[in-house]
């Protein structure tokens, strides 16, 4: 409990530091919104000429996209600092995290606060409200509960990959390239029905790099499209669980890799 | 060497050896940081793969949509993404922004060669090297995406001209983004926004001929289509004959207009340079 209190306090300080630069704050928020909405703009233009993408209408695509954005935002708000792990290590700031009496993982994620994640949240919420109006889902309490679990599971699934990439920085000097690649894989593959990439890729995108579990599988379940998913319906329902397992494995791996850390001696 | 002779004589060509040197250095820099190039190229390869699959799914059973057969569409997407990547190197702007921030820009301003030509030389060097990397990567691209011959011999010749003009427009646009560094404290956000918007309106994800109504009118009046859409559409035979020549004319007009804008922006930017300490 003390750890949680400390973590929240560190977040508050990080946000305050960032609010000093107002124009930058605004620019980064706008960037977050434009960045996250550019993908759906492309889908919208495509579906002006065509009716569906592999049977998914624009409304359904928007819902899939919104679900991915929600999961991404749910990951990014608390954890996005992991992306800058390699800077922290290269500049010798990780030494501090090891001597302080708080889990180093929690210290890393509270170092700074990048304002563009606020844009990510805004984009996610607006997209979701718009998308829900385009599809016909009757939200029963069970649906809402599943939606919440799906967002958390999706956040953890994206987190699994990000935590894994950040653990590489204990061994390699620069990992921003790998981190950007992971980001792009989740952004680009995650925004379309996984089945269009063929059976091999679909398998890899579900069990090796858990992209499909972020939005495609839960969206399929919520939209009642379990018939045309690439895995059986009951397995698709368990998608949030896959995210959780992936994250736990990656998190254990991260702590295991801390042992390989060698200070740069700054 | 006629160039060196010109340099000794003075006159308008006197700085040409300096520009050639800047171009060479920038090309060497790109080679030094090749792991970054390989990585951004990796993202483009993934993008080509995804777009090819998405468009194949969109076409479904339809053989031809809007007068474009699927095979031509896949060739268009592959080339547009590759070319769009080659003219979109952000390292020059980051480099310049750092020099402005740290005050080292003063040395660039003191040099006998003009500042704007120096930046243009940097951008040309980067575009040349990126194009070379793109050519080297062609075997990989052929496996992931779709490569193919140009529509005709005429299309090929016009494409070469249009490609050069496209690089010219892209260099001018990048120059403007670089100059924005004189006003902002942050350049990464600007560059990312620019890259997203320019890719979208350059027709990298969806060719301009698929844009609906008003959006198409907007896209046609923006300079971004002149960087990528025009040359690639000529290559695949979507723009032919008089249309192709008119499109190249539009590219040339954009180079002139953007050069004029850059001149204006630069005359204002000069007054903003404050070198701290030094």
UniProtKB/TrEMBL annotation, chain A:
Keywords in alphabetical order: Membrane, Transmembrane, Transmembrane helix
Annotated TM spans: 21-47, 53-71, 117-137, 143-165, 177-198, 235-254
UniProt superkingdom: Bacteria
InterPro entries to which the protein is assigned, alphabetical: ABC-2_transporter-like
UniProt KW Membrane keyword: yes
Keyword flag Transmembrane: yes
Protein name: ABC-2 type transport system permease protein
Origin organism lineage: Bacteria, Bacillati, Actinomycetota, Actinomycetes, Micromonosporales
TrEMBL record, chain B:
Keyword Lyase: no
Keywords: ATP-binding, Membrane, Nucleotide-binding, Transmembrane, Transmembrane helix
UniProt cross-references to InterPro entries, sorted A to Z: ABC-2_transporter-like
Transmembrane parts of this sequence: 36-55, 75-98, 119-147, 153-179, 191-215, 244-266
GO molecular function: ATP binding
Any matching Pfam family: ABC2_membrane_6
Coiled coil (UniProt feature): none
Keyword Transmembrane: yes
Cross-referenced PANTHER family: SLR1174 PROTEIN, SLR1174 PROTEIN-RELATED
Protein name: ABC-2 type transport system ATP-binding protein/ABC-2 type transport system permease protein
């Amino acid at each position: 409990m003390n750890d949680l209190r400390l973590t929240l306090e560190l977040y508050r300080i990080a946000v305050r530091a960032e609010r000093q630069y107002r124009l930058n704050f605004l620019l980064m928020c706008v960037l977050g919104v434009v960045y996250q909405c550019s993908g759906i703009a492309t889908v919208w233009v495509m579906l002006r000429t065509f009716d569906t993408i592999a049977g998914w209408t624009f409304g359904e695509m928007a819902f899939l996209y919104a679900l991915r954005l929600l999961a991404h935002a749910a990951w990014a708000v608390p954890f996005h600092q992991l992306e800058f792990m390699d800077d922290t290590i290269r500049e010798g700031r990780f030494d501090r995290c090891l001597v302080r009496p708080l889990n180093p993982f929690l210290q890393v994620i509270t170092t700074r606060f990048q304002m563009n994640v606020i844009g990510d949240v805004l984009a996610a919420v607006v997209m979701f409200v718009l998308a829900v109006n385009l599809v016909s889902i009757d939200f029963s309490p069970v649906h809402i509960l599943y939606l919440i679990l799906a967002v958390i599971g999706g956040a953890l699934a994206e987190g699994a990959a990000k935590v894994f990439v950040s653990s590489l920085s204990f061994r390699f000097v620069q990992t921003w390239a790998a981190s950007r690649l992971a980001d792009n894989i989740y952004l680009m593959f995650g925004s379309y029905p996984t089945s269009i990439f063929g059976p091999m890729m679909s398998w890899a995108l579900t069990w090796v790099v858990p992209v499909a579990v972020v939005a495609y599988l839960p969206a399929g379940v919520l939209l009642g499209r379990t018939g045309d998913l690439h895995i059986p319906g009951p397995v698709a329902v368990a998608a949030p669980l896959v995210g959780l397992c992936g994250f736990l494995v990656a998190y254990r791996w991260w702590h295991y890799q801390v042992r390989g850390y060698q200070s740069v001696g700054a | 060497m006629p160039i060196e002779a010109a340099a000794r004589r003075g006159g308008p060509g006197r700085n040409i050896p300096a520009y050639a040197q800047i171009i060479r250095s920038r090309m060497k820099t790109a080679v030094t940081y090749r792991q970054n190039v390989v990585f951004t190229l990796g993202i483009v390869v993934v993008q080509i793969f995804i777009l090819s699959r998405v468009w194949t799914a969109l076409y479904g059973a339809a053989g031809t949509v809007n007068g474009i057969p699927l095979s031509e569409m896949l060739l268009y997407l592959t080339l547009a993404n590759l070319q769009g990547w080659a003219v979109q190197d952000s390292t020059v702007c980051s480099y310049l922004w750092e020099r402005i921030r740290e005050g080292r820009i003063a040395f660039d301003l003191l040099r006998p060669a003009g500042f704007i030509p120096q930046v243009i030389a940097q951008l040309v060097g980067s575009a040349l090297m990126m194009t070379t990397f793109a050519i080297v990567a062609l075997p990989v691209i052929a496996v992931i995406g779709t490569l193919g011959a140009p529509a005709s011999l005429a299309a090929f010749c016009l494409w070469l001209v249009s490609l050069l003009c496209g690089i010219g427009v892209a260099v001018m646009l990048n120059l403007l983004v670089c100059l924005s560094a004189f006003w902002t404290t942050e350049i990464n956000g600007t560059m990312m926004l620019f890259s997203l918007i320019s890719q979208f309106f350059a027709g990298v994800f969806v060719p301009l001929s698929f844009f609906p109504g008003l959006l198409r009118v907007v896209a046609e009046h923006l300079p971004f289509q002149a960087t990528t859409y025009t040359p690639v559409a000529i290559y695949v035979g979507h723009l032919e004959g008089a249309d192709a020549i008119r499109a190249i004319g539009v590219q040339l007009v954009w180079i002139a207009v953007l050069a004029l804008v850059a001149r204006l922006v630069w005359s204002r930017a000069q007054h903003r340079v404050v070198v701290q300490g030094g």
